[in-house]
Design brief:
The complex is a heterotrimer.
Chain A (H helix, E strand, L loop, with lengths): L1 H14 L1 H19 L34 H37 L1 H16 L2 H11 L5 H12 L1 H15 L2 H8 L4 H37 L10 H10 L2 H4 L2 H29 L7
Helix pairs in contact in A: 1-12, 2-3, 2-12, 3-4, 3-6, 3-7, 3-9, 3-10, 3-12, 4-7, 5-6, 6-9, 7-9, 8-9, 9-10, 9-12, 10-12
Chain B lengths: L1 H28 L4 H8 L7 H12 L5 H13 L14 H34 L3 H16 L2 H15 L19 H38 L2 H8 L4 H38 L4 H10 L3 H29 L1 H4 L8
Chain C lengths: L2 E12 L2 E13 L4 E5 L6 H7 L7 E10 L2 E2 L16 E4 L13 H11 L4 H14 L16 H12 L6 E5 L7 H16 L5 E5 L3 H7 L2 E6 L2 E7 H6 L4 H9 L49 E4 L2 E3 L2 H7 L1
Parallel strand pairs in C: 3-8, 3-9, 6-7, 7-8
Antiparallel strand pairs in C: 1-2, 1-4, 4-5, 9-10, 10-12, 11-12
């Protein structure tokens, strides 16, 4: 029976166009991230060519006003985006799961307190806090940035997971586990979590997309990593050094387009998966 | 309802308290003496160095115990004293911010409201027909995935540089001084349009998709099926679904405020639009930490206020909260 | 005859093909009759109830005819059926707890519904209030939101709404399963009162709780694997069942008054065939203790005694 169910999910997954398109785009960029650096000989910040040269056979995406290779920066920036998405989005999901599960499962005072915490972090604009914290840090790496993003992005996930846990908690099989003397944590991980796997996957996808966008915003106002290139930083430099007025479109179009494509693909994948998991949304 | 607002108010007060504490804490608990760090970064302002050093030491009041520093900070804050700006020395930070705020309100309020209403309307419309669904849906996903600054840059480059339809920098033409004249107002409007439309478009995509998905869920809800089983026309079923789908959309608006504000900040940076976002960029570039702290507090205040307005709106839209019942907690 | 169903086939469309949830079903319902419809879960009883009023995807109408008071019901046409719904045929859904719009006052919702059907709410109001009294609901529930009502109150409210237009046929889908034992009985008795007061002419009560049927139903129809097994008076089904499946079903009941759970019956070994590709012949034969060679052919649903229909070769043999 279990096998049958899995096959059915796979069948719907293979038939779902949204899922296929979304995954194809993500796969494309993932491959580009891995293969891209091998296709270029230049370090991302080095001045290696003519200034502001349009795309050509030698410089695929052209060069910046300083003569840096845009393609090199682009593929390294992609890596930064994926890193932030996985680490930041992953941490945000993890914190959301932890806080949401505990609040929803324990209920009572624990729930009250965690709920209050969630609501507070929810109301404070993430970017404003990051702005203040990041502004005072001397050296900032991609990893630190991801951690900060993850630490501020969890509230909506926690809230959604709390609601889900609430409804699952009252089901028979959870009661049964509890009555038979299982420890809370064990009940959460053996009985509740497996029943929410599909939902957690969707949460992670949205957290991933959110982290990529927030990182781009931070980088754009110059609060990104101080020791690496990122797509947001490319756009920051482009605006700062007059790419708009000089019409150096090849400098700012690729990074924004990549972010849009990746985040859009994540969202579309999310909807596709939702349709696969939730029979009510399937189109017959 | 009293309980509903009581809870909300408590969260807001706590939030503000925590935000102010963060604001106070960060420069003090970062590695190194804050004054030294600040002075090292403000080094380029040669003439002001001595003055600034004295000023910072005095304001940080590092010679008194921490708890006293904290109370002093609150005291100054409640008197509206946010310190003196470095960027526009020696103007008080509060004044610098107040000059920028009207531009933010002017930009944010219309773009948020219009994108929300238009997005909901189109989303509901799209869920109605397959063909619309197939065009609006992908467009919506692209728009909502677009980083704010990138859309702003695309618009600035195409409509501002290539076609020269709109100006791309400033809040009004540099050659004008603010007066209540037609020329000035039209200049204001022209400079406002591109930032507005880029904020509007990104928001629009998100709301349209949200509404479309919510409506589909609502149409599958039991009460919709019951109406259908009793032969109610599609119009009524849809109307109910729409009314109920608007509620989570309103909650969503509250949740999205932070993201929208962040979007506005970077959009202002692209267009050098003289709001808080532009100030923040200048504050970062000139290491003006008092200005940065001030902007932070102001954003928090603005978001809290907007949240409160949405709470009221929620009570107006969800009758259950008024009937003394526990509605969905926004 | 108030309702005549002939050779009705309704399938569920799924990936692996059509699930024959309702396969060639023929029966009738007399005016004023309350018929219980029972069987294991997945036997097609809910499909039958729903296809009479709201046949929506993935349900697919294959063939057959349904006549209500000698008038053909266009059950295959979602739009055309609207003329009959609520007026001639109505349903008390299984999900009565969530059947009302949570954000609209109940009275406003009823008013919206009536007006959308071209009826005058204020003209109906006195009758509505009388019905509320009948089910012992205060008339101020009309000014309340569904969330302010208890489960039992919601159930009764939905019963009132569904029968407001005195439909010829009322389908009651598992109306007692969400309630406690005391309310179950009250709700079941209300149904009889509704019929006696002519708030509805005849009714089909879908349930897996045969004990409730014994209290309120005039007749009981037993379904098995998408087909009819037996139909007779409630008395005959409980005390003198003829189909082997009914016999096992009745004997496996602990005692009248205790409901068995919606699982496959522990008393009958084996499980129902998958309806995706059902075996030919009698669908019960693999679990039937009496099965013999003839059962490879599908038995017709035949009247063996006045008002007693059964689909079993052994029975035909004995009566021949």
């Amino acid at each position: 029976m279990m096998n049958l169910k899995k096959n059915e999910l796979l069948y719907f997954a293979l038939r779902n166009n949204k899922l296929k398109v979304g995954l194809a785009i993500l796969l494309f960029f993932a491959v580009l991230t891995v293969v891209g650096p091998l296709l270029t000989d230049y370090p991302p910040f080095d001045y290696i060519g003519p200034a502001a040269a349009p795309p050509s056979a030698e410089f695929w995406f052209g060069t910046t006003t300083f003569g840096q290779d845009v393609f090199t920066q682009f593929v390294h920036g992609l890596k930064a985006s994926f890193l932030v998405g996985i680490v930041g989005g992953g941490l945000g999901t993890l914190l959301g799961i932890l806080i949401g599960f505990i609040a929803g499962y324990r209920g009572g005072l624990v729930d009250e307190i965690l709920n209050m915490l969630t609501n507070i972090v929810l109301v404070i604009p993430t970017l404003a806090v990051l702005l203040i914290i990041v502004a005072y840090l001397e050296v900032r790496g991609l990893f630190i940035e991801s951690i900060f993003i993850g630490c501020t992005a969890w509230p909506w996930a926690a809230r959604a997971i709390r609601a889900q846990t609430f409804s699952l908690r009252s089901r028979d099989f959870v009661d049964l586990a509890r009555l038979s003397g299982m420890k809370s944590l064990k009940v959460i991980f053996t009985e509740i979590a497996p029943n929410m796997m599909s939902y957690l996957l969707l949460v992670f996808i949205l957290q991933f997309g959110g982290a990529v966008l927030i990182a781009a915003t931070l980088d754009f106002i110059g609060l990104g990593p101080t020791n690496a290139i990122s797509l947001g930083l490319m756009m920051n430099n482009a605006v700062l050094w007059g790419a708009l007025i000089l019409g150096i479109w090849w400098w700012f179009i690729p990074p924004g387009l990549a972010i849009t494509a990746i985040v859009g693909a994540l969202y579309v994948t999310n909807v596709g998966l939702d349709e696969v998991f939730n029979p009510k949304l399937r189109e017959m | 309802m009293k309980r509903y607002f009581g809870r909300k108010l408590l969260v807001y007060i706590l939030t503000f308290f925590i935000a102010v504490t963060i604001d106070w804490m960060i420069p003090r608990f970062m590695p190194g003496n804050p004054v030294d760090v600040l002075m090292a970064r403000a080094g380029s302002f040669a003439g002001a160095t001595e003055l600034m050093h004295d000023y910072y030491t005095k304001v940080f009041g590092l010679d008194v115990p921490l708890w006293q520093q904290y109370i002093n900070f609150w005291g100054a804050l409640l008197h509206g004293d946010l310190g003196i700006s470095v960027y526009v020395f020696p103007k008080p930070v509060a004044e610098v911010i107040m000059d920028a705020v009207p531009f933010d309100i002017f930009l944010l309020v219309p773009s948020i409201l219009l994108s929300w209403f238009a997005g909901n309307w189109f989303g509901a419309f799209a869920a109605r027909s397959k063909r619309l669904d197939n065009t609006i849906l992908p467009l919506g996903y692209i728009l909502t995935a677009t980083p704010y600054m990138w859309l702003a840059m695309l618009l600035a480059w195409t409509l501002g540089i290539v076609f020269e339809v709109f100006p791309i920098a400033g809040g009004y033409s540099f050659s004008l001084t603010p007066t209540f004249s037609w020329v000035f107002i039209s200049s204001l409007f022209k400079h406002w349009f591109l930032p507005f439309i880029s904020l509007f478009l990104v928001g629009f995509g998100g709301w349209a998709i949200g509404m479309r998905n919510m409506i589909i869920y609502e149409l599958e809800a039991d009460y919709s099926h019951y109406l259908e089983a009793l032969g109610a026309p599609r119009k009524l079923v849809r109307k109910y679904a729409f009314n109920n789908a608007v509620l989570p959309q309103l909650t969503g608006l509250a949740l999205q405020l932070g993201v929208i504000v962040a979007g506005a900040l970077v959009t202002e940076v692209v267009f050098s639009y003289p709001g808080i976002g532009y100030l923040i960029l200048q504050a970062i570039n000139t290491r003006d930490y008092f200005l940065l702290q001030g902007c932070f507090l102001f954003i928090i205040l603005g978001v809290l206020l907007a949240n409160f307005v949405i709470d009221i709106a929620y009570v107006l839209v969800d009758p259950r909260t008024r009937a003394g019942m526990q509605g969905e907690s926004a | 005859m108030s309702l005549e169903v002939e050779n009705l086939k309704v399938y569920y469309q799924t990936l692996r093909g059509d699930v024959k949830a309702l396969d060639d079903v023929t029966f009738g319902l007399n005016s004023g009759e309350i018929m219980g419809l029972a069987g294991e879960s997945g036997c097609g009883k809910t499909t039958l109830g729903h296809s009479l009023i709201r046949l929506n995807p993935p349900m697919k109408f294959i063939e057959g005819s349904v006549k209500l008071n000698h008038e053909e019901l266009p059950i295959w046409d979602m739009e055309k059926m609207n003329d009959f719904r609520f007026m001639k045929i109505s349903i008390i859904p299984q999900y009565a707890m969530n059947a009302m719009n949570p954000t609209r006052k109940i009275g406003d919702m009823v008013s919206d519904l009536l007006r959308s059907r071209g009826l005058d709410f204020s003209a109906t109001l006195p009758e509505l209030k009388r019905r509320l009294e009948m089910v012992k609901l205060p008339s101020n529930v009309l000014k309340m939101y569904p969330i302010e009502l208890s489960g039992g109150m919601k159930q009764r409210m939905v019963m009132v709404i569904s029968t407001l237009m005195n439909p010829s046929l009322l389908i009651a889908d598992e109306i007692t399963s969400a309630l406690d034992v005391a309310s179950q009985k009250a709700v079941a008795e209300l149904l009889v009162e509704f019929r006696d007061q002519e708030c509805c002419n005849s009714a089909i009560v879908i349930t897996h709780d045969i004990s409730i049927l014994y209290q309120i139903a005039d007749s009981i129809m037993i379904m098995y694997a998408g087909q009819l097994a037996e139909k007779a008076s409630a008395e005959a089904i409980i005390h003198a069942p003829r189909h082997p499946y009914t016999k096992l079903l009745i004997s496996s009941l602990p005692k009248v008054g205790i409901k068995h759970t919606e699982k496959r019956l522990p008393g009958i070994p084996g499980k129902p065939p998958l309806l995706l590709n059902p075996p030919t012949g009698c669908r019960f034969r693999e679990r039937c203790p009496l099965a013999y060679g003839k059962c490879l052919e599908a038995p017709p649903f035949k009247e063996v005694e006045k008002g007693h229909f059964v689909a079993c070769w052994k029975e035909f043999e004995q009566n021949a």
